[in-house]
Amino acid sequence: MNVVELKPDTPSDVVIEELREGGLRLEMNNPPANALSIALMQALRDRIAAAGDDKAVRVVVIASAKPGKLFSAGHDLKELTAHRADADKGRAFFSQTMELCAELMQTIVRLPKPVIAEVDGLATAAGCQLVASCDLAVCTDTSTFCTPGVNIGLFCSTPMVALTRNVHRKQAMEMLLTGETIDASTAREFGLINRIVPREYLNQIVRKYAEVIASKSSLTLKIGKEAFYKQAEMTLEDAYDYTAQVMVENMMARDAEEGIGAFIDKRKAEWTGE
């Protein structure tokens, strides 16, 4: 992937990073709409990928640096449109953008650590895709979600991938075909969101979520997340064959021996990640 120079009006740091008690907080900082520009997607992809090998990071949170109105407006349509003046009418840049977006979403899914979306505001198109790609999602009661590409002649085909892996097909098609915005309550009913909380408690609750997850064995979380996504794509029989072997290998781990022993002895387990 080619490195793209930041535009003059792009923040020098499009992702603000904070590590606290095992939780890596990544705040998108691309005002006014946190559009998923090349620069923002590259920054998110690289920092999430780096978290995979960082032992200090046990869970990742993706949020907006300026919550309240927009979580993310999806792809940067102005950036895309500007490349229609290219000799190939933008085809190469469009391909780069969509490939990078797919790479970012897969980096989230393949990260051996849980990723939580903290949503306060509108998550639209690829912004909704970003929420759907995270393992967990918590939003405010005023947050909204949509895949409105159909309204501008550009079907949300890549957001569809993450959406259909989170919500029922009929509900996914409703969002994709109508382009209409759904509220937080509907998003939870659809399966897109785990919890809805008042805005004043959002950060506190997500932080508590992250702390609870960070207190678990990092090896166990890695094994579990990988198995979750793999078995979901298998037949029932194959899924049971696969997960049975996963549990056997998990039982052989030092952390499983320690955790079971601590449970039997009624003491706190001491994890080593082995």
UniProtKB/TrEMBL annotation:
Q: Do you know which Gene3D superfamilies this protein is assigned to? A: 2-enoyl-CoA Hydratase, Chain A, domain 1, Lyase 2-enoyl-coa Hydratase, Chain A, domain 2
Q: Name one Pfam family in it.
A: ECH_1
The record's GO molecular-function terms, alphabetically, read:
enoyl-CoA hydratase activity
Cite the entry's keywords alphabetically.
Fatty acid metabolism, Lipid metabolism, Lyase, Transit peptide
Which family does the UniProt entry place this protein in? Answer: Belongs to the enoyl-CoA hydratase/isomerase family.
PANTHER family listed in its UniProt record: ENOYL-COA HYDRATASE DOMAIN-CONTAINING PROTEIN 3, MITOCHONDRIAL, PTHR43602
Q: What does this protein do?
A: May play a role in fatty acid biosynthesis and insulin sensitivity.
Recorded protein name is Enoyl-CoA hydratase domain-containing protein 3, mitochondrial
Q: Which organism is it from?
A: Hoeflea algicola
